[in-house]
Amino acid sequence: MSTENEGNAVPPAPSAPPVPVGSPETAPQGPAAAGNPPTAPLPPVPQESPAAPEQGVAYQPVPAPDGTWPPPPATPAYGDGAGPGGPGAGWGASYQQPAPKPRNGRGGLVAAVLVAALVAGGLGGGLGYTLAKDSDGGGSTTVSASDSATQVKRAPGTIAHVAAKALPSTVTIEAESTNGEGGTGTGFVFDTQGHIVTNNHVVADAVDGGKLTATFPDGRKYDAEVVGHAQGYDVAVVKLKNAPSDLKPLALGDSDKVAVGDETIAIGAPFGLSNTVTTGIISAKNRPVASSDGSSTSKASYMSALQTDASINPGNSGGPLLDASGAVIGINSAIQSSSSGGFGAGQSGSIGLGFAIPINQAKYVAQQLIKTGKPVYARIGASVSLEESTDGAKITDQGTGGAAAVESGGPADKAGLKPGDVITKLDDHVIDSGPTLIGEIWTHKPGDKVAVTYKRGGQEHSVSMTLGSREGDS
């Protein structure tokens, strides 16, 4: 497999195909599925075929004269002019594309499925997860949750109390490119100057002259512009135009102090359902995740993620992952799909495997973007193999385009590393592959000193290394 110089460029996503981890089972539907049919006689019902329910109107099944219950009407998939759930829905991501504009004159599911390898930290196994951009070819299915939660007081420490305080500081972001393509994601208020933090992949369509809007739970909608975006970190900052004076930034927590088992609260717009609140726990820390947007020219995104079982679906991307006190500990970014299938085949929504960028890393990136408009990446100045491995991150024999694998005068060179060395630890974190190493490096800032453990000729060595820096433009 080809390699990239980690220190000089943001490497592409690994090309290994994801491993399917099962297909969702079809759950029984309708009242009969509950095993509790009505026991009292029921009045006869006219036999005309019932009209299809209007969108947004709950389906109310009625029994036939013989007491049997009809099946519920089929729910069209996204792209058929209705909500999620049909066979064509492209589930398995955290970014939701809205309905195409009427001028397109055509419906149909349009999904760009992004596949990346997830290396299970400590296990060395390769898991597949899918990032998908779904398209609803019919009318809008966005349903805004009631903002009445902000009007009702709940006891401190309850989920309702945390949600009531956090919801007014979250926004639903709609991004549209110059050719009309785009999607919906989430963001949250970062400061009182109108800066909103979200994912790069949420706003990518609007970077070059596109349209960007942010809508608050109370219905206020503002035009916005991209201040800066970091594709490698998958973090972006946008700024509201004519920002209101009453913005309340969300408090930022300390993701380094998060423990497995801590409660989590996620806020976002899954499948366009704005202001949705879900809960769970921290399932794991330092979970290496690598992804790309699937294009041939894209650069990879790497993160040492917080894993949560809070329900995260397309449209949750960029939204805050909160702790029990309401402080932001991460930015929801990706989920694992139950299948690596293509356009809707065997795909699902949340299966309890969501991944968030730790807020300590995202905060640093956001501050750099606000300050200079450009991200700054920590680097070691060495090319590492991106092939799946359980042994560590191997420094390649040659870098990109024939360049040296170890940059002369770079951090790795100064630390005495050479081609063929296999890095197995960064500080106290086990490194089982190149992507894992990059994700861990990017949790640090340029200038940080790290302890590197590596193997050479079967012998283990340790050395201290000062990380370098590289300014990126995406």
TrEMBL record:
Biased composition (Gly residues): 80-91
Residue ranges with Low complexity bias: 22-37
Biased composition (Pro residues): 11-21, 38-47, 62-75
The UniProt record lists the keyword Membrane: yes
Domain PDZ: 380-466
Gene3D superfamilies named in the record: 2.30.42.10, 2.40.10.120
Superkingdom as given in the UniProt entry: Bacteria
UniProt entry keywords in alphabetical sequence: Hydrolase, Membrane, Protease, Transmembrane, Transmembrane helix
Enzyme Commission designation: 3.4.21.-
Stored Pfam families: PDZ_2, Trypsin_2
Native source species: Streptomyces echinatus
Keyword Membrane part of the UniProt annotation: yes
Parts of the chain that traverse the membrane: 109-132
GO terms for MF: serine-type endopeptidase activity
First-tier enzyme category under EC: hydrolase
Protein name, as recorded: Putative serine protease PepD
Region (Disordered): 1-102, 391-417
Alphabetical GO biological process terms: proteolysis
